[in-house]
């Protein structure tokens, strides 16, 4: 096992039910009075004891849907009491703004969305500060998810939306810098949801965005980058292994969301053209490859599990899926560490790709064995 491995659990995973076309009350114990402090305690009581000792756990939350000024003190205390950390915080703009958020062409909406962002920064540096990891390079990520800044009609106004986005995010970054400049700020690219078209749909879009606001507004790219979201790349058939190369090559992987749309392990349905189903991390060759890439790059920040319990899961099954997701990734990392990388490069240089495939398949089999051992 690695000396330390940081995993973060998402507040939104623990919901009473999806609703709509599936039951909205499958897990009544996660509704009503079950708030974020209670979720933190659940992670400490039910999940942490089932994981290897080398794993440190953090929590991810939306402001102001899951943490706000009213419950922040209780959330911070719960984190401290359960030896957990604030791993990620994000403005929940999609809960409030349906016409572009900080990119909106409506000046009132844009101003309100900008205020939500600065309040998120204030809370992170204020009441929640005591729950940060003591190592500065493990400080929380401030993730900008683009569920708000999208559009559904083709007009020349899209360019102005993009300019608004640049100006607003540059302002947020400068505001955070004055607070201390300790947060890692990243975009979470997504091709769609909650609009048919989004302003930052891909990893390449995010990388270009940071370059533009450095050039135009003087915002340095240090501690800026991408929340690596496996599933969002999978949704539109992009290669999340190559995405990893781009992110690492630009020193831009500030956070990770380990999940899957399901199509790449031969078992779970989903994939390109499907909705964002958010399975947990899977054991497969792609994930072993990504684990090897981040190990080579020395990535040691938070690996979040942006996942949903299945619509038919009980609370017990939902908890078990989170444990399985964490252990699956740990198993992929162990398999990647033990893979003969020099031997793999040798057969690739000789064009012996069938042998390379065999080596990766053996790594996947080994990972499943590691998972089985840890899970028991």
Provide structural commentary.
With 376 residues, the protein is of the alpha/beta class. It has a single domain, classed as Alpha-Beta Barrel (TIM Barrel). It is 44% helix and 13% strand. The strands form 2 sheets. The chain has an 8-stranded parallel barrel with strand order 1-2-3-4-6-8-9-10, surrounded by 6 helices. β2, α2 and β3 form a beta-alpha-beta unit. It is globular and about 60 Å long. The mean pLDDT is 95.
Q: What is the strand and helix layout of this fold?
A:
Elements: E1 5-10, H1 36-47, E2 55-63, H2 72-81, E3 85-91, H3 107-125, E4 141-145, E5 150-151, H4 157-179, E6 184-188, E7 197-198, H5 203-217, E8 224-229, H6 230-235, H7 240-249, E9 253-257, H8 285-297, E10 303-305, H9 315-338, H10 341-349, H11 353-375
Parallel strand pairs: 1-2, 1-10, 2-3, 3-4, 4-6, 6-8, 8-9, 9-10
Antiparallel strand pairs: 5-7
At a glance:
The protein is of the alpha/beta class.
Could you list some keywords that capture this structure?
376 residues; alpha/beta; TIM Barrel; 8-stranded parallel beta barrel; two-stranded antiparallel sheet; 10 strands; 44% helix; globular
User: What structural class do you assign from the helix and strand content?
Assistant: alpha/beta
Assign the CATH class.
Answer: Alpha Beta
Shape: globular
Main sheet: strands, sense, barrel: 8 strands, parallel, barrel
Mean pLDDT: 95
Q: What is the CATH topology assignment?
A: TIM Barrel
How are helices and strands ordered from N to C? Answer: EHEHEHEEHEEHEHHEHEHHH
The residue fraction in helices comes out at 40-55%
Biggest sheet: strand arrangement: 1-2-3-4-6-8-9-10
């Amino acid at each position: 096992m690695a000396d330390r491995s940081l995993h973060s659990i998402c507040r939104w995973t623990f919901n009473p039910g999806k609703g709509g076309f599936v039951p909205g009350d499958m897990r009544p114990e996660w509704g009503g009075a079950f708030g974020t402090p209670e979720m933190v305690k659940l992670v400490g009581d039910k999940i942490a004891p089932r994981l290897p000792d080398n794993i440190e756990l953090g929590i991810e939350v939306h402001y102001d849907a899951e943490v706000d000024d009213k419950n922040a003190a209780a959330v911070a205390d719960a984190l401290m009491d359960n030896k957990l950390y604030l791993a990620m915080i994000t403005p929940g703009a999609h809960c409030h703004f349906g016409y572009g958020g900080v990119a909106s062409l409506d000046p009132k909406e844009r101003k309100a969305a900008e205020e939500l962002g600065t309040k998120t920064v204030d809370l992170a540096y204020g009441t929640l500060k005591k729950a940060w990891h003591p190592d500065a390079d493990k400080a929380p990520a401030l993730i900008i998810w683009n569920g708000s800044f999208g559009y559904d009609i083709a007009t020349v106004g899209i360019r102005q939306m993009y300019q608004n986005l640049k100006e607003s995010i540059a302002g947020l970054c400068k505001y955070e810098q004055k607070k201390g400049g300790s947060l890692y700020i990243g975009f979470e690219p997504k091709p769609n949801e909650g609009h048919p078209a989004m302003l930052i749909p891909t990893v390449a879009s995010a990388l270009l965005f940071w370059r533009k606001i450095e050039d135009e507004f003087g915002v340095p790219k240090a501690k800026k980058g991408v929340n690596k979201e496996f599933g969002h790349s999978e949704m539109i058939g992009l290669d999340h292994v190559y995405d990893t190369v781009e992110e690492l090559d630009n020193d831009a992987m500030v956070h990770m969301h380990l999940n899957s749309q399901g199509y790449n392990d031969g078992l779970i349905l989903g994939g390109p053209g499907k909705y964002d189903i958010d399975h947990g991390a899977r054991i497969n060759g792609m994930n072993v490859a990504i684990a090897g890439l981040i190990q080579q790059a020395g990535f040691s920040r938070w690996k979040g599990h942006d996942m949903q319990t299945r619509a038919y899961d009980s609370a017990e099954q939902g908890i078990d899926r989170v444990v399985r997701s964490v252990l699956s990734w740990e198993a992929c990392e162990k398999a990647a560490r033990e893979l003969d990388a020099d031997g793999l490069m040798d057969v690739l240089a000789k064009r012996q790709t069938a042998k390379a495939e065999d080596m990766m398949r053996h790594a996947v089999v080994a990972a499943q064995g590691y998972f089985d051992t840890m899970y028991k």
